[in-house]
Amino acid sequence: QVQLVESGGGLVQAGGSLRLSCAASGRTTSRYDMAWFRQAPGKERIVVSTINWSGTSKYYVDFVKGRFTISRDYAKNTVYLQMNSLNSEDTAVYYCAARRVGISDWDYWGQGTQVTVSS
């Protein structure tokens, strides 16, 4: 079992930055792919960024490319999402997810952290 706890959300003005953290416990996630999803009010949950277990492959949805950066710290068993140049459309609940290598479904989810961008 893996437990994921997100932190770092909050209220920020448009153009500002936030760094989200996802701390994993219960089992090392060194052999897990990790991801950040988000869900805006009235919209479906979508993937924002992923990083594979080795950190060698990263994915970003088009509308965050150049603004968001995903990274992971194996020693701390933590994944980060650095978000820059935030705008009101980035307002959402952000979720961290993990999946075992070779598995297509995201097995584990955090509780989410709210990000609100004021214009």
Strand-helix topology:
Blueprint lengths: L2 E5 L2 E4 L4 E8 L6 E8 L6 E6 L6 E3 L7 E6 L4 E6 L8 E9 L7 E2 L3 E6 L1
Description of the structure:
With 119 residues, the protein is mainly beta. The protein is 0% helix and 53% strand. It is built from no helices and 11 strands. Strands 2, 4, 5, 6, 9, 10 and 11 form a 7-stranded mixed sheet that branches. β5 and β6 form a beta hairpin. It starts with a strand and ends with a strand. The relative contact order is 0.32. The mean pLDDT is 95.
- Beta-strand content estimate: over 45%
Class by helix and strand content?
A: mainly beta
Q: Give me the number of helical elements.
A: 0
- Characterize the biggest β-sheet: 7 strands, mixed
Percent of residues in helices: under 10%
Strand tally is 11
User: What is the string of SSEs from the N terminus onward?
Assistant: EEEEEEEEEEE
Q: State the assembly state of the protein chains.
A: single chain
Q: What distinguishing features does this structure have?
A:
mainly beta; four-stranded antiparallel beta sheet
Summarize it.
The protein is mostly beta strands. It has strands at residues 3-7, 10-13, 18-25, 32-39, 46-51, 58-60, 68-73, 78-83, 92-100, 108-109, 113-118. Strands 2, 4, 5, 6, 9, 10 and 11 form a 7-stranded mixed beta sheet that branches. It has a 4-stranded antiparallel beta sheet with strand order 1-3-8-7, with no helix packed on it.
